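Duplicate of earlier report; DNA-binding protein input re-posted below.
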Amino acid sequence: MRPDIALIPLEKEVRATLTTAEAAAHLNRAEQTLRFWAMGTVKSPIQPRRVNGRLAWPVAELKKLLGVEEA
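Output:
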C-alpha cells in the first residue's frame, strides 16, 4: 500500500467510486493489476467506470466483491 493513501474502511465509505490506488489497497493488489483488469483483456472480478479518462472503481462493487456489509 502506498504510504500517502489514507484508507477509510469500506463499510464507512460514502463516496460512489474510489481511485485506482485506493481500490488496489482495499483489494491488496498492485495498482497495475487493476489497470490490467480495466483493459478488458482478461476476465476480472470488477470493472471500473471511466470519468474524463480516469478510472473510477465503484464502491458498491468493491463491497460486494469483498463481502463488506453496510454500516
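The chain has one domain: 13-66.

Merging into the original ticket.
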